[in-house]
Specification:
- This protein has about 170 residues and is mainly β.
- The protein has a single domain, classed as Sandwich (Jelly Rolls), CATH 2.60.120.
- The protein contains three helices and 13 strands.
- The strands form three sheets. It has a six-stranded antiparallel beta sheet, with no helix packed on it. A five-stranded antiparallel beta sheet has the order 9-8-11-6-13, with no helix packed on it.
- Strand 3 and strand 4 form a beta hairpin.
- The model has no long low-confidence stretch (mean pLDDT about 95).
- This is dTDP-4-dehydrorhamnose 3,5-epimerase.
- GO terms for molecular function: dTDP-4-dehydrorhamnose 3,5-epimerase activity.
Length: about 170
């Protein structure tokens, strides 16, 4: 596991060892002790499968830390700091597959777009799911996220399409 800090405090990009074999590959995606060293005690593992490319979800900041990694396919990930601090609104984007993971601290918004069909995405979290979260508009011009496909070609939920702007989130926190 190779850990790289990012411009968002607490957001870590993690390189995973993927070992090719005769049948495909093997990776250690979860190791309790290694994640505990990051301050994460995993209590729930969620898996989402996406059949098509261009599926977008987010931007959601939940009250738990997340460890994210695809086990198949590739994703474009946009992360937004939604914590009430000096890096509020800062955006980081990544493209990765099974060889990488992200550690996203609570209060930092996560979104992703599938880049390949048949993408399977793993979410390990350190609190049980609850509906509490802060959301922001995927297409807010203030974020200037350069999605990998034109908006008209993306598939997203009506719920995500109704997320507030970054300015509205800032005002709600004031």
């Amino acid at each position: 596991m190779r850990i790289e800090e990012t411009a968002i405090p607490g957001l870590l990009r993690i390189g995973l060892d993927v070992k090719p074999n005769d049948d495909g590959w093997f990776k250690e995606n979860f190791h309790r002790e290694k994640l505990a060293d990051l301050g994460m005690d995993v209590v729930q593992h969620n898996v989402a499968y996406f059949a098509e490319l261009g599926i977008v979800r987010g931007i959601h900041a939940e009250p738990w830390d997340k460890y994210l990694s695809p086990s198949s396919g590739r994703v474009f990930v946009a992360i937004v700091d939604l914590r009430d601090n000096e890096t509020f609104g800062r955006v980081e984007t990544f493209e990765f597959g099974p060889e990488q993971a992200l550690y996203v601290p609570r209060g930092v918004g996560n979104s992703f777009c599938t880049l390949t069909p048949h993408t399977t995405y793993n979410f390990l979290v350190n609190e049980y799911w609850s509906p509490e979260r802060v959301t922001v508009d995927l297409f807010d011009p203030a974020l200037a996220i350069d999605w990998p496909f034109p908006r008209a070609e993306l598939s997203y939920t009506e719920r995500d399409a109704a997320n507030p702007s970054l300015d509205q989130v800032r005002t709600q926190r004031a």
